[in-house]
Amino acid sequence: MIKIRNFAAAVLFLILIFTCAFAQSSSPVQNPSFELCEDEQPPAGWYSESGNAKYTDFSLSYAAYNGEKSAYLSNSIPTYSRITQFINCTPGVKYRLTVMARTEGVHSTQNAYGAYITVQSRSAYGQNKVCSMMLDDECPSWTPLTLYFITTNIQQVCIWLCLGADGAENSGSVCFDCVEVEEVEAVPDDEPFVILSEKSAPILGYLPFLAAIIITGIAIWLIAGKSRGKNKQTDGKKDKKCIPNDTDTAPLGHASSKEADINEKQRDSDDDI
Fold first, then answer.
1. Which stretches within the chain are classed as H helix?
2. What domains are defined for the chain?
3. Is 255 helix (H, G, I), strand (E, B) or coil?
4. Chain centroid to CA 127: how far?
5. Is 95 helix (H, G, I), strand (E, B) or coil?
6. pLDDT tens-digit map of 99-143
């Protein structure tokens, strides 16, 4: 019976090792189980950020969920700390981010965030406020944190594994392990879901304004062209000079040439008489 138990334990251990190894090779996340280290802080492939680095410890813990190590974050005073990593993704594809975590000495409230995970885009870094559920000392055992996300026009997002937040600082410690990112067909209704997108490039943002200017300019040019055509027609009519009669050109107070001829003939007749 003891041999059977030992054999079953050995098989389970091998399954865990192969599962972790497979995750290492197929996951878009580098060093997802934190087995690789570079002087132990931060873990290889990850970057650290803190509101007060003097009071934050980034290192590795040997209390692992899978394998031998996990990432360890500890805040000795209320502040925020996180380890981050950019990963590649495909626009329009839904993903599930899952991380195992456990906490110690963390008391999360509305004004003090516990341990959680989230994702950010490069152009709006830190602006996404949607995150997984938060862990505190009510969850001291290994607990999965889950977050779903999709991107619309970007091919890279940043994973955040956090303790506390800017404006919602906290103290205590947390261990993170087994970071997994996998494609999914659908998102459950009761799970946190993030839609990420990059801001348009400046020239693209001005395209509607530029198009309006161009259209307005064309309209003004067409209206001005029609106006010029009408003016030409009017000028042509003015060029056709009317030949005035003598009456029109006679000075005021003087008879016209026809009237002068009639008057002269009338005088000749009177003389003959």
1. 2-26, 202-205, 207-239, 246-249, 257-272
2. 2-199 (2.60.120.260), 207-267 (no CATH)
3. coil
4. 10
5. strand
6. 999 999 998 888 899 999 999 988 888 788 899 999 988 778 999
